[in-house]
Design a protein that fits this description.
By secondary structure, the protein is of the alpha/beta class. The chain is built from five helices and seven strands; from the N terminus they run βββααββαβαβα. The mean pLDDT is 97.
């Protein structure tokens, strides 16, 4: 599914984030930035040791913030590593921290003049953020950002599995009503 927002495109696809040919892909990292499971492990494995070497120099990343490294062996030139919140009960600033993870990633992309960004669904795997809630935060943050920033031409959400894709598609349709 593709929609135009301002002078940009917001796109939803089902696929593998490590295969994206956007200027930058976003990694759902942990605070150490030293790799982990899920999306994080897949990006580190596909991107190679150069990403890990740069991550070590960064000294970690607090929840809600973002950092940038090379893309290593990936098609994308860069990786923005962001740390989403671990979901507890929804009352521990999780929504704010998740929105910040997306917004700070987009800010870094703009600052580095990167025109296309691919996001996974941050925090919805091992961090257990409910996908319906997470998709609302992710898509609203991206839409609001694109309305105010025309320098990013493409924001693509790369969703793992049909359940995730369907949740994001439903949310996007509701958001655009």
């Amino acid at each position: 599914m593709k929609v135009n927002i301002n002078q940009s495109v917001l796109e939803l696809i089902e696929g593998d984030i490590t295969e994206q040919d956007t200027d930058v892909i976003v990694n759902a990292a942990n605070t150490s930035l030293l790799g982990g499971g899920g999306v994080d492990g897949a990006i580190h494995m596909a991107g190679g040791l150069k990403i890990l070497e740069e991550c070590k120099k960064l000294g970690g990343c607090p929840t809600g913030e973002a950092r940038i490294t090379t893309g290593g062996n990936l098609k994308a030139k860069y990786v923005i590593h962001t740390v989403g919140p671990i979901y507890h009960n929804g009352k521990s600033r999780e929504a704010e921290l998740l929105a910040n993870a997306y917004k700070n990633s987009l800010n870094i992309a703009s600052k580095h003049k990167l025109n296309s960004v691919a996001f996974p669904s941050i925090s919805t795997g091992a961090y257990r953020y409910p996908i319906d809630e997470a998709s609302k935060i992710a898509l609203k943050t991206a839409v609001d950002y694109l309305k105010a920033h025309s320098e990013i031409k493409l924001v693509r959400f790369v969703l793992f599995g049909s359940k995730a894709y369907q949740a994001y598609e439903k949310t996007l349709r509701e958001l655009l009503k």
